[in-house]
Hints:
Layout: E1 20-21, H1 30-42, E2 45-49, H2 56-64, E3 72-77, H3 84-95, H4 109-112, H5 118-131, E4 138-143, H6 151-162, E5 168-174, H7 183-187, E6 191-194, H8 196-199, H9 203-212, H10 219-229, H11 233-241, H12 259-268, H13 273-282, E7 287-288, H14 290-297, H15 302-312, E8 316-319, E9 326-328, H16 330-344, H17 348-356, H18 362-372, H19 375-391, H20 395-402, H21 407-411, H22 414-424, H23 430-446, H24 450-465, H25 470-481, H26 487-503, H27 507-522, H28 527-532, H29 545-560, H30 566-581, H31 585-601, H32 606-622, H33 626-643, H34 646-666, H35 670-682, H36 690-707, H37 710-717, H38 731-745, H39 749-764, H40 770-773, H41 777-785, H42 794-807, H43 813-818, H44 849-859, H45 864-871, H46 875-889, H47 894-903
Amino acid sequence: MSSAPAPAPHAFALAKIQPPRPRTSLVGRPALELALGTSLLQRRLTLLLAPAGYGKTSALARQIRWLPPGTALAWVSADEDDQLPRFLACLGRALEPHDLPWRVDPDALATLALGERGLRAVADELINALAGAEAARGLLVLDDVHRIADPQVFELLQWVIERLPARWGVAMASRLEPPLAMGRWRAAGELGEFRQYELRFNQDEVVALLAGAGLPADAGVARELLERTDGWAAGLRLNLSARPGGNGARAGVLTQRHLFDYLAAEVLDDMPAELRSFLLCCAVLPELTAARCARVSGSPHAARLLAEVERRGLFVSVLDADELTLRLHDLFRDFLEDRLQRECAGELPALLRRAAEGEDDLPRAVGYLARAGAWDEAAQAVAGRGAELLAIGGGPSLARMLALFPPAEFERRPELHFLRGLSCFPTFAFDTMLAAMQQAEAGFRAAGREAQAWRARAYACLAMENMAQTEVAARELPKLLALPLDDGTRAIVCFGAAWAAYAQARAADVAPWFAQMLQALERVPEPAVWDACFFHSLWVGMPGMDGLLERFGERATVLFGDTPTQLRAGVLHARVWLAFSAGRLDEAGHWLARADEDCRWLGRPRSVLTENHLAHTLIDAVGGRRDAAYAAALECRHDIAEHGSAPNRLTHECEAIFTHGRAAWILQDEATLRELDARLAQVPDPCGWAAADDGRRFSRAFVALVDGRLHDAQALLAPLAIDHEPSCFFPAAQATVLLADVRLRLGALDEAAATLRPWIARAMAGGSVGGALLCGWPVLQRLRDTRWGERLSTDQKAVLGRLAATLAPREDPAVRAARPGGAAARAPQDDDAAAPRGGRAQGLAGLSEREREVLARLAAGDSNKLIARGLELSPHTVKRHVANLLGKLGVETRGQAAARWRHGP
């Protein structure tokens, strides 16, 4: 049975995406409603722009009730702390009921924003999902937009609105004009604007208000009220409701400047003491429910008092929720908080602490505690639940919460430094990670928390290995192992020791360390620790590693299920190379396609993307897909150069360039080989990783081979052709087979056979053949066709034949044509042997059994929730299956996929 972690709580209060219910007492405003309704249905952007109290939210809430049946509506109420990640989380969840055909996990959009294309990539995914909706009309409503301070939100909205599908519109309500370039939309008639003039009440509407309040519908009174308030909805409301049945004229001249005093005298002081106290206490809450209000106010009568607030219509909106949920109007909430500060400021910290208790919205809870100055409780909340956010891609949200702490408070809390370090791991910001973990270690040790100090030092060692301090890490790790570590820390230390052995060319030591790591992990099913040990696919083929990697993958899948995570992506990449190592190229392609799906679904985080790029560079090259191989190689190198920290760049740049060069060799691209060899020679390697020098030597051998300098190539390859793999992607086996081919071309048939025999014997005993496949079709064809006589046995020759047959159908005709003498190296073609990354549709036959089950339900008209219930899956898993099957079928919408199912291939 899987013990996969339960879905993390929402990173925001659900009330933020629940539209308010319009009050039944609202008077009709025919002119406004007709114009607003037309704009919402026809315009790209509808903007309601006016100061507080002009009824923007009420107008929208009333209007959405009259939208045509089947309209897809997503409502988001903005808050002051809605930076981009939180805004995207709200928007994704608000759109969830409409079963959009997402190709990326909506929860991973914030991670996608950190990538190379940033907000444009997020906008593309959002636009494509909206375009695939089945609704005839869709509307995104963003309320209180003036609260958003993050410019990235508006940059994203500019991109989205500019390219919005024709069937969708956006509505915004704001006190301030949003920083959007709206001139072109205005000129094209695609912008509906409702400003203060359009939103103010006219005389007929004021008459209707008087009648609705049970007062005489006197035109003279209406005209006087209109003059005093200039049609301001909040001012009119205050005049009419300050005293039930009272005389509206008694308020005198009412302006926003006098509003707080007026509310105090005519509204708050006129309440029963119990209700007054209740409202003042609950003013710290953005949304009011009975449970929240009882917790904050301490009143056992919270439900009754909340109902009384609704009955009195005290400047609240009723949200469309299962339980009574009220949202205070901004003006009224600001007033109540002002009175609270004046009358009982000493009680505010305690109220904020109680508001934070039980709050599922972690950023909001930490915000309450920060306002209260309750830094101990805030730190405890972040430390207790921050790792939860990291597991679901919430690094940006965590960083925002950490930024709330004043420097003095942050510096003295090692748990916050530790969290900052952990948040750097998925983005490979190893320099920041090292500094944070070293500060965490010092703080934990000073506090006598030795176990936490040891874990921080273990993570610091991982960072050191990626930033030119491998020797330091290699000295520290044995010291840690001599301590009484818990299993989680021991696993991380052993993982670091395995990487130190790899970096120092102690290939035989990698597997023993990995085995100790795995033993410790199996005793501690802690997701965060397993997740830290995900990056190991590069060790496939090294001595003793393949069985351990298979065991790791099996155990991780049993423990944590089939949900896309960084950990699962690491398992899939390891399976890619295990299959490739065994010569099962179709299976390798299958696992790589699964890894692609996870990488995309997770928002292409750098930690997963690097492995993915390296795998595609070589495997696409072996498949003859030059453009795909080079695209992956160039993207990998660009990411390292432009987005990696300087130490991390120095650590990984050599490997990325060498992998690109190996692809160029497979594709016989002489110009690119020479260019990369020159580049590789210039890249410094202060880290001292032995693989870097081997890579340079190998690169020079490639150039010697294309130059026809066979003796030079032989001299360069001979030291690399050893009997075990010292580093990633089978360089020793590749060097051995290339060396045999060089000796064959030099006429040294006996030496060529002697070079091959030990390697073939290992292959026949179950060893890797991946290195031979990386030699390319011409080499394998030449070795297969050589008359070896008795130098090789029949079985040994058969191995060469099978390898040549495995590779022959996969070479791109363009590669053959570009090669000198390419016509002599002809091979049959099968263009569909392995589709390019993200490429051609596979049809129904390409769907897994589970995907076919989901598609059948989808074609029957089931929503994601019904499919999840019927197949006993989580809605999250259903969304991922829908994304996968849309890609495999080459369609954009659920309706198109359903049609393919009904009509067959």
